Amino acid sequence: MKKDFLSILDITKTELDEILIDAERLKRQKKAGVPHELLRGMSLAMIFEKSSTRTHISFEVGMHELGGHALFLNAKDLQIGRGEEIRDTARVASRYVSAIMIRAYRHSTVVDLAENATVPVINGLSDIEHPCQLLADILTIKEHFGKVRGLKVAWVGDGNNVCNSLVLSSALTGMEIAVAGPKGYEIAPELVEKAQALGGRVTRVKTPQDAVKDAHVIVTDTWISMGDEAEQEKRRAAFKGFTVNDALLRHASPDARVLHCLPAHRGEEITGDVLDGPKSLVWDEAENRLHAQKALLVKLLKR
Ligand code: CP
Ligand code: NVA
């Protein structure tokens, strides 16, 4: 049976631990120049309905370093851009490639693709989740703190895709997560309940200060996600006071570190001083997309 990765909860705790260990090994091998062509002869189709820098580059380079091949497919240039059904694209692409990664506006598109593909499907960001980002974030936290279980993590900002995957991940990692978002942009209660039902330690709090209190890790994301462009002004007004800045970090643990999936907007969700400063793990986090996704690809394709 093929295994998909549409949600961070599509892997078990044990699988997450294995991916982290494999990612660390693949990272060491790359740095040491040790070849690791574990996916020789395999191909990954990468379907993008939206823009991407990190997801596109890291998956393409990752497949290359694993001895395989990746195809960049802009959805507009595929026949789905002219109305071909996603299920037919799934069936046909499955005859050519070993796996499919898709970045889509609607999560239902990702699910539809996965249900009709006979090869593993990876969610490269939907409106509901960004599970690949979480693999990199957890790897970055583990690298820096030497552990993940028991750490306090604060989410400050929009309660959407990246936030959802972070909250759900607490059921796997044992990290304690406090979430603060402005009124109207809070995380959906069902997601918090789902994480809690699976053993995740998640609380919804009112202010960024409450969220970051004693936190080891502070995570934020853009106020204007892809697809939200029409609401720019409304969102900028609503998110006022939710900037991750030095004053906010004074409420956190003294050894706190900051994550941001990028792209960032200095002066909006995060200040330049924080993003470019000593508490930022953002550049390691971006690099770790590569190592974590290579480990994921090997796990899905070498079962
Ligand atoms: N963090 C992330 O997914 O970045 P891209 O949108 O550049 O892929
Ligand atoms: N929340 C952002 C993440 C980008 C990687 C978006 O959906 O645009």
UniProtKB/TrEMBL annotation:
Domain Aspartate/ornithine carbamoyltransferase Asp/Orn-binding: 150-298
Location in or out of the cell: Cytoplasm
An example molecular function term from Gene Ontology annotations: amino acid binding
Binding site for L-ornithine: 161, 221, 225-226
Gene Ontology cellular component annotations, sorted alphabetically: cytoplasm
Top-level taxon of the source organism: Archaea
Keyword vocabulary terms for this entry: Amino-acid biosynthesis, Arginine biosynthesis, Cytoplasm, Transferase
NCBIfam families: orni_carb_tr, PRK00779.1
Record-linked HAMAP family: OTCase
Protein name per its UniProtKB record: Ornithine carbamoyltransferase
Originating organism: Methanoregula boonei (strain DSM 21154 / JCM 14090 / 6A8)
Lineage of source species: Archaea, Methanobacteriati, Methanobacteriota, Stenosarchaea group, Methanomicrobia
